[in-house]
Every structure is written in structure tokens, then in C-alpha cells.
Amino acid sequence: MSSTTKREKHADKKEQLTSRQKDIIQILTKFTASRPATVAMISEMLGLSSRTILREIPHVEKWLTQNDFHFVRKPGVGLILDESVENQKLILELLEVESVSKSYSKEERCRRILGELLYAEEPLKSYYFTSKFHISEGTFSGDLDRIIQWLKPYRIELIRRPGLGILLEGEESSYRQAIANLVYESVDESQIMQMLRGEQQENQLLLPSSNRVLGMLDSETAGQVEQILLDSEKRLHIRYADSAYVGLVMHISLAIKRIQNNEKIVMEQERLQKLMRLPEFAVAEEIGDKLKEQFHIKIPRGEIGFITMHLCSARIWPTDERTERNMERINLQQLASEMVGVVEQEMSVDFSDNDSLLEDLCNHFAPMLSRLSMHIPVENPQKETIKEEYPDIWKATLTASDVLARELELSEIPESEISFLAMHFGAAVEKKLQKQMRISVVVVCPTGVGTSRILEAGLKKTFPQIDVQGTVSAFRIQPDKLREQGIDLIISTVNLQTDYPWIAVSPILQAQDKRRIESKIASLGPKSKADVASIIQRPITRDRIQSICYAGVELIDLLDHLRFDSMFAARTRAEVIERAGALFAEDEQTAAYIENGLFERDQLADTYVKQLHVLLLHCQTSMVEHARFGYIKLEPPLYENGRIILGAVVMLVPERREDNILHQLIGALSALLVEDKKLLERLRAGDWDGSKARIEDGLGVYYKQFLKKMGGV
Fold it and tell me: Which of 84, 300, 461, 505 qualifies as a cystine partner to 513, CB 3.0-4.6 A?
């Protein structure tokens, strides 16, 4: 029968293939009668079980027979498509126009749905997916649940909006990472490179062009990217590790497509600044210039940063056996510590509070040792700037480089390499100065207890440039003392009568409060470096040791005397305050005295905290010797002028002295109420054991920070 006749007969056939059956037929056309295909071979090529292939063979045979093609199954030999080369080409042509009934596994279907969503420029209707994949709404909803879990590590959110559709929301860098990992899940590295290069191995199926993710990786773009990378290897004397090369080509190819589609890439400034201190950043800039020239696009600074990250993992600096032996011999941690010690001595600076400096230096040393041993020169465009504007840092690093030269048995370290090391030390010094150039504030509430601590926690979380020096009572503001302490601003929960710079805000910061604080800080103006205290760490004095011990004893005492209570059918706030007065009292007279103090504080300024639905009952009283914390659960809640009061927090501090440490302890507990949602949940549920555990954990974190602040221990 002629080919034309076969085409005509095929047009009349009703049998429809699934994508899996179509794949099997494509494989059969690659084999001959002298070299037949086996079920095991097809199973391996498709990544399916032999049993699955055997189930599909009858359908394959039926389609071939209906279209007058000769298919032979020989037990113990294999499967043969007994047709001429011309007819085998005809089969492939027929498959191209064949109306295929798609059959996907759950995993493959989810990947394809995800691919569509990652590239969608507008919300997609659920009907689009249910009709495309022939699935029910219930099945599609289950697929979306799986996709949501898959996206979680990338911080990409799947949004389902009735009447509008389904879309994804996240940072561009997160999209890039998700797309790259989705490609890796779909195919292996060898297939990716074959696809990017436009190659097709014999007996290997074409990658599915309908997959949106894979469709973005076109071979022309990838080929040009590869050529740029190969040229950079020769020009810059670098080498890309095979294990990371595929990822680098794919990342840059995807980035180009995304940039051409006007997708914006940004990187956190602190992270970018850290990467700029690496020689790999200079290499990334060189690659970026070539990409700009080749593709006529602007490469954002953030993109250079991400290319730098790939270059670091690609281990671009070559090594030989001697270099590897030297690197094994050298203790990088010890080497970094010695260099830090020299710089500290030269500059009279203490870097012990910089956790990342040693790690950054160790990470820098390994590729640097490779460059030095292989005599690979690197240039740092910032070298002259460092020497001119930061002569002290340059001189100290130059002196410290003798440690490296001695260890590596070199006469000297090239200035270009020293300049990169100097950038690390310069960043550490700048970080230390920035800490001490922040805005110093004190927080004020009517009594110096309670709501001010909630405000303090909010300030620390929202404004990293603010350094809260402590909390004071509105009645004990001493301007001269504040000036002596270098306080720039008072932030209060009530209006004040003082000439000292101040601003009043809500205990739990609202949007308008944040804007007003930002404006107030801007009006203060920057500090000059001459105003900055010495960055040499203070010694641990006897007084500070006593404070550390005292804080620990008081913390344990506070934990040992936590009290919780449930109050049924409270009718008024006054009844709650009366119950609070008795929570830590041993007799009626003491209870009445504490109650009066709590009532006066409540009259001075409302203690209701709307965001927490609690009364924050607190005062200073001579009826206690130590700080106390408790909670009263209200069953049912108390409804007061449209307010819902679920419970009352009770906090007491001694009145006998101005004890800043006890105030700090109570303040730490106040902050926990805002920061630890699980603590508030347990208090509301009456889970007293769970509440104690959360409080103990939270105060443990506070005490650790207190130790670091007091002595750097």
C-alpha cells in the first residue's frame, strides 16, 4: 500500500493515542528488525515500570494495525516495527498530526500546572486547567495543595481569588530559583544540555515542547551564553566545574529571557555588598558586560550578584595536586584568626562581636590560595580607593598579609589580593561603627513598666537603626542625665511636658506611628564620626559581673513565682482589678494596697491593649520584693464599650528602689506577649504548663542577649 493510501486510511480512524503510547511508538521507530527494542529498554528510557509498558503495548499494536503498519512481538527477542525506512518516517509524520489524548501522572501534571503559573502574566481560571488536563475540580484543588507545599521553600504564594483566577506572588529571585529547580525535577542535566545545545541523541525522545518551563530555555540563547562563558575561561584563566556549569548556563539563559520580558531582579543591599568583596564579582561583571553587548540588554546590579553566587559554587579557580595538598595542610580557621588578631592589634579594634568575619575570611581563603599557587592575577577596581580613603585599614591588612605569606612560603602577597581582604576588614569596621552611630532612645510610659516594654519590642523589630537604651517613668525624666547618656530621643506612650526631643505613639506601633518616627529621626540629623564612642570593647568590670549574677537570680525567682488564675462572670473592669490585686497578696490588706496601685495606673492611662484584647495591669508597689508576672483568664470575656477583654496581664515591680534590671525582666515578658503568639494562645486557653514553658524559653533568649550586651559572653 502506498504512503498516500496509508495517510487517507489514517484520516478515517477513530482510535486515539495517549501521550505515553505515542512515546512508545516513537521509540520503536528508532529500532530495526536486526536490533529490536525490548520492554526493559523502553521502560528505562521512559522511566516507567515494565508492567506499565506491557499494559500499553496492546493499544500501540491496535493503532499500528488500524493504520496498516506491521508490528511484531517476538517472545524472548523483542518488539519489532517491521516497516521500511520510508514508512517509519511516515509513522513519525502521522504522530505529529495525531490527536493525542494526554495521560499524565499526578507528579507530571502538577509540574505542568506549576510551569503555566510561573510564566502567567495574569490570573488563570481553574477551567483553563481542568479542561486542558481533563480533570475534575476536586482533583485540580488537590494538585494546587501539592503545588502550595512545593512553593513554600521559595516564599512564593499561590493566590486563589474567586471570580478572578489563580496567580503566584513572590520575588523575582524566588521565581528564578523555582523555575531552575522545576527544570531539574523534569529532566536530568545531560538532557538539559542537549536541549540547550539543540542536540538530539539517538533513541532519545524529544523533550516536551508543551512544557512552559522548558520552552523558555531555547538553544540559540544558551549557545550564545556558552560561548561567552568559554571565552571568559580563556581570557580570565578560570575554569568552571562540570557539576555547576549546567546550572550557570541555565541560570543566565533564564535570566536573559526574564530580563527581555521586563522582569525586575533585585538583591538585598547587605547581601550584594558582601558579594562585591569577592574576586568572583569582578568575573561576574565581565560576563555581564559581554551579555549586555551580545543581547543588547541592561544587566541589573542584582543580576551580577546572582551570577557571582553561581560562580562561587562553580569553583572557577583551578587547582593542581600540590595546591590541594597545601590546602589540606593549612588550617584556614587558624589562619583567619591570626590575621584578625594582627588587624585588631594594629587598629586597636575588637572584632569578637562580629560572627561573620571569620567565616567570610575562611570562605575567601580557599579560592585565593588556588589563585596564588597557580599564579592567576586578579584585579580589584576598588584597590586605589581603599588605599586612599581607608589608609588605616589598608596598612593593617598589609601587615596581616605577612601571616599568609609566611604560611604559603611566598615573599609577598599581591596588592590586588590584599585589597580584597581589606574590603572584608573594612566592612567589619563599618558595621561596628554603624552600631554605635544608631539613634539612642529611651522609652517612656506613666510608670516605666508594662506598655513601654511592648513599645520597646516593636521599635527594635521595626527600626534597626534605633538603639533602645532603657525605659523610664514619665515622672522621672531627667534631661541633664539623658544628655549625659547620649540619648537622642524620647519615645513615649503618653504626651509629655519636657523640652527634650520626644514623640508620643501607640504601644503597638500603627502605620501612622511608624511614619511619624521616621520623620522625627530624619529631623535629628546624622551623627558625626567624632561623636562616636571608641569601638574598643569595654572590659568586664566587677559591677557588670554583679549585674549579670543579680539578673540571673531575679530571673529564676520570677519564673518560680508565676501565677495564673481564671475568673468567671466578671461584670466590670473594677472587679478584674480587684482580683488582680489579690493574685500575689498574702492577706487582704496587701491585696487592697496592690489593687489601689493598679487602679491608679489604670486611671492615669488606659491599660487596655486592643491588639491583644487584654488589660495590661501593672504598677510599682512596696508590697513585693521581686518582680512578679501573672495572668487572669476571663470566662466568658468581658465586653466593655465595644471592647472585648479576654484576660488581664498582671505585672508588679518593687517600689523600694530604681531597679533597671527588674524593669528589663518585666519588659522582656511584655515583649513576649507581642512577639510570641503561641504564648498568648496558651494563656487564653488556660494552658498554664504550656504558658510557663513559653515564658521560660522567652526569658532564656532575653538572658542570653543580656549576657552578650553586658560582657560579650
Answer: 505
C-alpha torsion sign, points 686, 689, 694, 699: positive
Q: Which three cell numbers stand for residue 700?
A: 532564656
| Distance, CA of 673 to CA of 694 (rounded, Å) | 10
Counting every residue, how long is the chain? 713
Query: Strand 165-169 vs strand 157-161: parallel, antiparallel, or unpaired?
Result: antiparallel
Per-residue model confidence (pLDDT) at position 704: 83
Distance CA 396, CA 343 (A): 5
Residue 406 and residue 338 in contact, taking contact as beta carbons nearer than 8 Å: no
Is residue 489 within 8 Å of residue 502, measured between CB atoms?
A: yes
Least confident among 101-110, 404-413, 550-559, 618-627: 101-110
The pLDDT assigned to 238 comes to: 79
Distance between CA atoms of residues 247 and 245, nearest Å? 5
Q: Of 426, 387, 435, which is closest to residue 277 (Cα–Cα)?
A: 426
Among 707, 683, 706, smallest CA distance to 693 is for 683
Q: How far is CA 576 from the centre of its chain?
A: 44
Q: Decide the pairing of beta strands 71-74 and 78-81.
A: antiparallel
Alpha carbon distance 371, 238 (integer Å): 9
* 8 Å CB contact between 584 and 654: no
Q: Do the bridges between strand 489-492 and strand 439-445 make them parallel or antiparallel, or are there none, so unpaired?
A: parallel
Instruction: Give the span between the Cα atoms of 484 and 450, in whole angstroms.
Output: 26
- Please report the pLDDT score of residue 576 as a whole number: 94
Geometric angle at alpha carbon 15, from 11 and 18, rounded to 5°: 115
Burial of 495 (0-12, 13-18, 19+ CB in 10 A): exposed
Report whether 573 contacts 638 (CB < 8 A).
yes
Count the neighbouring beta carbons within 10 Å of the beta carbon of residue 465. Answer: 10
Give alpha helix (H) positions in 169-268: 172-186, 189-196, 212-215, 219-236, 242-260
Residue 201 or residue 601, greater confidence:
601
Of 152-161, 304-313, 583-592, 596-605, the one with minimum mean pLDDT is 304-313
- Read off the pLDDT of residues 26-67 as tens digits, 9 standing for 90 and up: 888 888 777 888 888 888 787 777 877 888 888 888 888 888
Distance CA(365)–CA(329), nearest Å, equals 13
- Who's near 271: CB < 8 A, 6+ residues apart? 305
Partners of 504 in the beta sheet?
492
| Percent of the chain's residues with pLDDT above 70 | 83
Helix axes 50-66 and 39-46, enclosed angle (nearest 10): 110
Helix locations, 561-616, DSSP H: 573-582, 588-604
Residue 629 pLDDT grade (very low, low, confident, very high; cuts 50, 70, 90): very high
Q: List the one residue out of 625, 638, 629 whose CA is nearest residue 695.
A: 629
| CA distances (Å), origin 37, targets 29, 31, 79, 146, 204 | 9, 6, 5, 36, 13
**Which is nearest to 69 in space by CA: 78, 77, 81?**
81
Q: Judge contact between 554 and 665, C-beta under 8 A.
A: yes
Backbone angles phi and psi of 502, in degrees to 5: -150, 165
CA 10 to chain centre: 56
Residue 570, amino acid:
A
Phi-psi sector, 486: left (phi>0), alpha (psi -120 to 50), beta: left
